[in-house]
Specification:
The structure is a single chain. This protein is mostly beta strands. The protein contains three helices and 34 strands. The strands form seven sheets. Strands 1, 4, 5, 7, 8, 9 and 12 form a seven-stranded antiparallel sheet that branches. Strands 17-18-33-22-28-29-30 form a seven-stranded antiparallel sheet, with no helix packed on it. The radius of gyration is 22 Å and the shape is globular.
């Protein structure tokens, strides 16, 4: 199905739904018609399908929902500023079918020029009935690009071969993140300019295979599979993708996952920061995938003396950990955090210490010497810990960027 892009000028004139003035603060819902209390203003189809405003009786806080016989629609626009991070969400259900939905943010300039778009995670929508069922939160977190002054918030559904479906949504919720650049350790402590050859913003249309190799593939290739972590499941190149300003690793219910590793020259000592999250995609009762950004020694055999895991956890765990491997042992540190949201995880690796930061705040320092050359995995590694054949809970790890900063002690191989 081809989605027709709705221009800013058209929607502004026809709907008048852009929030006037500046953006809302973090405690305010900036969606202008969240529960369709009196009309459909701001809501409409992208594929020409019939729409209606339907009564709701089983969702506290909402008495009405947008209903379309199609699979693509828009929600109210919102005014934004470049660099802001927004979370756009709504409650969805599908009747006479089941499938998935995702939120897409399209960015426009003040003149109504389309700039770019970003897609949020795909969320499973179970089958519901006319009389009841499940309302599922569908959400995405996005950062407005340079020149953006408005966001057009869209939803894209996929229901397979089902016909006669009713795709419903209500309670749109637009929240401006409270995070600021000072939530980056590099900004707060003046680490300077990232080393471009060791960093990646993931803003291109494809993974840079001169910088990264994909698990399961030969260097320079996007395709292939290999056994997963300790032989469990598979790591496949197809599971690591780049689009919408993010690098993503997706794990499936049958144990197929991915990740990447650095091909840049290895370095010893320095600072590295990554903006990352990992989210479950379905509640199928499966085991959790294990997500981790890390530094890995140039010589694989040295991992017990030189691996540094700096945001390790099961997907959706209530805590995230640092594990510094040294001298055949490891020193841990952990913090309680919602790791399904984006956070900034950073390391300051010096000749005799490793300091760990989360959202710009130092959490702990491990006073050990890690005297090895290492490479970054770019923040993207999601492993299957259970044995092959176990049902896994589908999940996706997203990386906004990874940045490396040199220090006076930094050396390159």
């Amino acid at each position: 199905m081809t989605r027709t892009r709705i221009g800013a000028a058209l929607l502004l004139a026809a709907l008048g739904v852009v929030v006037p003035g500046g953006p809302a603060d973090a405690a305010t819902n900036a969606c202008s018609n969240p529960v369709l209390a009196t009309n459909l203003n701001g809501w409409g189809p992208l594929d020409g399908a019939a729409v209606s405003r339907d009564p709701v009786g089983d969702l506290p806080g909402a008495s009405w929902a947008f209903d379309t016989s199609g699979r693509e629609f828009y929600m109210p626009q919102v005014a934004v500023s470049a660099g802001q991070t927004w979370t756009f969400a709504a409650k969805d259900r599908v009747v006479f079918g089941s499938g998935t939905a995702k939120i897409v943010a399209e960015w426009y300039s003040s003149s109504g020029q389309y700039l770019s778009e970003q897609s949020g995670p795909t969320v499973a929508l179970p089958a519901s009935t006319v009389s009841g069922g499940t309302w599922t939160t569908v959400s995405g977190t996005f950062t407005a690009p340079a020149g953006a002054t408005s966001a057009h918030v869209l939803q894209i559904g996929s229901f397979g071969s089902a016909t006669g479906t009713d795709f419903k949504a209500t309670m749109c919720d637009y929240q401006l993140a409270t995070a600021t650049p000072s939530d980056q350790a590099a900004v707060r402590y003046g680490w300077g300019t990232p080393v471009a050859a060791q960093s990646d913003e993931y803003n291109g249309t494809a993974i840079n295979l001169t910088k990264w190799g994909l698990f399961g593939t030969d260097p320079g290739s996007y395709t292939g599979c290999s056994p997963g972590y300790q032989g469990h499941g598979q790591r496949c190149g197809s599971q690591t993708t780049q689009s919408g300003g993010y690098l993503s690793v997706t794990g499936t219910a049958d144990g197929r996952t991915g990740g990447l590793y650095g091909l840049m020259p290895a370095f010893r000592y320095g600072r590295i920061e990554v903006r990352e999250r990992a989210v479950p995609l379905a509640g199928n009762g499966g085991k959790a995938y294990h997500a981790v950004p890390l530094l890995w020694p140039e010589n694989d055999a040295d991992w017990e003396n030189a691996e540094i895991d700096f945001a390790e956890r099961d997907v959706a765990s209530s805590s995230v950990g640092l594990f510094v491997h040294h001298d055949g042992t490891q020193t841990p540190c952990s913090v309680t955090i919602d790791s399904t949201k984006f956070h900034n995880y950073a390391l300051d690796w010096q000749p005799n210490s490793v300091t760990w930061y989360v959202d710009g705040v130092p959490q702990c320092t491990v006073n050990e010497s890690i005297n090895y050359f290492s490479r970054s995995n770019g923040g993207a590694q999601m492993d299957m810990f259970p044995q092959t054949g176990e049902l896994m809970r589908p999940a996706r790890q997203d990386i906004d960027w990874v940045r490396m900063y040199a220090t006076p002690a930094t050396q390159y191989r």
